[in-house]
Amino acid sequence: MNLWPVVAKELKQLVRDPRSLLMNVAMPLIVMLLFGAGYGGHESRAIPVAVANLDPEGRFSWELIDYIFQTPGIEPACYVDSEEEAIELVRRGEVYGAIIIPEHFSDDIMAGKKVYVKVVVDAAAPFAPVLITQSVTTALYYLQVSIAEEQGTVAIEMVEETVYGPRISTMESFLPITMGLLLHLVPMTLISLSICREKERGTYEQLIMAPISRWDIIGGKLAAYTILSLANMLGTLAIAVLIFDVRVRGPLVDLVLFSTLFLMCSLSLGMLVSVVSKNQLQALGTSIFLFIPSLLFSGVISPVEYISPAVRYTMTYTMPMYYFLRGFRAIMLKGYTLLDVWSECLALGLMTAIYFSLAIILLRMRLG
Amino acid sequence: MSEAKAIVLRNVTKRFKDVVAVNNVSFEVEQGELFGLLGPNAAGKTTTIRMICGLLEPTSGTVMVYGYVQPRDRMLVSRMMGYVPQHFSLYEDLTVYENMLFYSAVYGVPYSVRRRRIERLLDRFLLTEFKDKLAGQLSGGTKRRLALATALVHNPSLVILDEPTAGIDPHLRYLFWRFFEELRDEGVTLLVTTHYMDEAEFCERLVLMRAGRVIAQGTPREIKRQALRGELIEVTVRNSVLLSEAMAGLPFVRGFRLLERDGSTATYVLLVDDAERDLVRVLRGLEARGIEVVTISPIYISLEDAFLSLTGGLA
Fold first, then answer.
1. B106 touches chain A (CB under 8 A)
2. Using the beta-carbon criterion (under 8 Å), do B78 and A202 form an inter-chain contact?
3. Quick check: is B224 in a domain?
4. In a shared domain, residues B188 and B269
């Protein structure tokens, strides 16, 4: 076993190569800064909707509008005088939805007649329909409670409480995904080039002439890339915590250790790609190709329960990203410790061992 | 190991898909020899060398280095071998010193002697001034010297060089062969491939390859003799009658040809077994027959002539 020379050599090369530095160190930091600038902070963000109040003289219509815009997420962009005008605004894409309060709304309520509020949404826009209907439903509920109190009839009030609250900011809920992308795609792509580069530049011929084992080559490279990526991961986490005020509920050490395990898993997978690829271009393509399912099926976009069982059992549960997201969310948002996410640790450790062993077995110590 | 031959190839064949790169090659290299592997491009030299280094597996036949079978015993043998591939194969983004340090560490050179040994090699191969330069910034000739110096960091007893002098200037080529001879004098076995026939004259023994086959082997002189089935003497004599009969009458002349005849002299080329030995006998034999010899000398045959003759390129 003769690991250290390879580690030292790889680190020297990594630090000296401006491309690898840019990709491995600068890029994740920049991504995290951009991400924080985009989603961080505490000011509220809202999507615009149009309001057509056809009962301008009624008292309940304005009360309802007040309730609607007290809910977070939507704001009135403009008030119009007819239903057609409001719908036209939605159609033209100027607002995400329109809320139409019909004529005689307040009078009909007082008369005890059945009334309605019309909501027109742009179904093509993601998130918007749910957000708008949710706001209107909530507002209607408050209005009904208020009327019931006034009239002395029965009202059932809903009391809302959150688990792991009181409030998780957008930045905090997106951070596991961002860390997942940064700790998976970047190191995997970078290390997937390493063996191919030696082969393409011809340095592999001299290297395997030396009394060096597969273990030395794979282990040495992996150790060097882990050290560099680790420094980078700490920097990225520091930006999130120190600059953008992300709160880690669990122990920070556990979060770092868990992320390191995931990092080593990504690097082992990248190493395996490098060992089986013929050249750097192929390695790069393979890394990206492997990354796409991670993005689609590991709980980044939707809860994994929405994924069909066929894909879920074959792909989701075999992807390191799935276990990372679960574990990272648990430690960061729920305050779990490493012991609480032992099953995720086990899964990641197992996959690391498999990728690593395969890379060693498949590395060819011959030319041609 | 002390009695084993440095390198033994027995009926070695290497096939790449439908191309036979090396075809039933056998030769042996003794310890302490400066051995040449000669042939034009695509003769199979590099493939042969890579099999000796354990970088390629022969399709059939046996390759042994110091009695160990390659590539099976690669880890055992590689400590005794230094290898300079045809193309520069060190790290261009590491400095001269870092490259040598890396390989001395990989070869397990004890920490205490690394520094001193590297300094000595840098000095020996005129690299000291480039010590902290990136290898990628060096000129072609300097890279070659670095490759050779790096191949020697672990004091190998066998050094294999693949076209070490291809594409470098004559001065440096000369210098390189002096290095090789020095190393040989220190007891190192060297196997050098080249396609420069003139260089091969420096080798003690060589193998001539063409299209994957060995077409001749032995000392340079043996190969030339093998090529022409003898050696040549050029003789110019005073013109007289029955000259050809006189030539044919000499018992040790195996063949002759008239090169030119002018008014007073005629020039012949004679084929004999050994030019040096037979020169005087030819002279005496002709004088005994009353023929006046104007000049007589052995013809120098270059390896190139021999090679062309062996491959049918020269009549």
1. yes
2. no
3. no
4. no
Q: Looking at CA atoms only, how far is residue B97 from chain A in angstroms? A: 12
- The Cα–Cα gap between B290 and B284 comes to 10
- Name chain B contacts of A16, Cβ cutoff 8 Å: 93-94
DSSP helix/strand/coil, B131: coil
Please provide the DSSP assignment of A266-322 as one string: HHHHHHHHHHH-SSHHHHHHHHHHHHHHHHHHSSSSS-GGGS-HHHHHHTGGG-HHH
Q: How far apart are CA A158 and CA A137, in angstroms?
A: 12
Peptide bond into B71 cis (omega under 30): yes
B125 domain-assigned:
yes
Is B210 within 8 Å of B288 (Cβ atoms)? no
Q: What is the pTM of this model?
A: 0.81
Look up residue A206 and give its two tokens.
């001299």
Is the domain of B97 the same as that of B200? Answer: yes
* Residue B236 dihedral angles phi and psi, to the nearest 5°: -115, 130
Burial of B300 (0-12, 13-18, 19+ CB in 10 A): exposed
**What confidence tens digit (pLDDT) does each residue in A63-103 have?**
888 888 887 778 888 888 888 888 888 888 888 888 888 88
Which ipTM score applies to this complex? Answer: 0.83
- Sheet arrangement for strand B19-29: B19-29, B7-16, B60-65, B68-70
Looking at B218, B249, B284, the residue that finishes a domain is B218
Tokens 């030299």 belong to B45
**Looking at beta carbons, which residues of chain A come within 8 Å of B109?**
none
Per DSSP (E only), the strands in A13-155 are: 47-53, 74-80, 97-101, 118-121
- At A248, which helix (H) or strand (E)? none
Contact assessment for residue A40 and residue A171, using Cβ atoms and an 8 Å cutoff: yes
Q: Which of A5, A13, A204 sits opposite B106 (nearest CB)?
A: A5
pLDDT tens, residue by residue, B131-162: 999 999 998 889 999 999 999 999 999 999 99
Query: Between β-strands B265-272 and B255-261, what pairing exists: parallel, antiparallel or unpaired?
Result: antiparallel
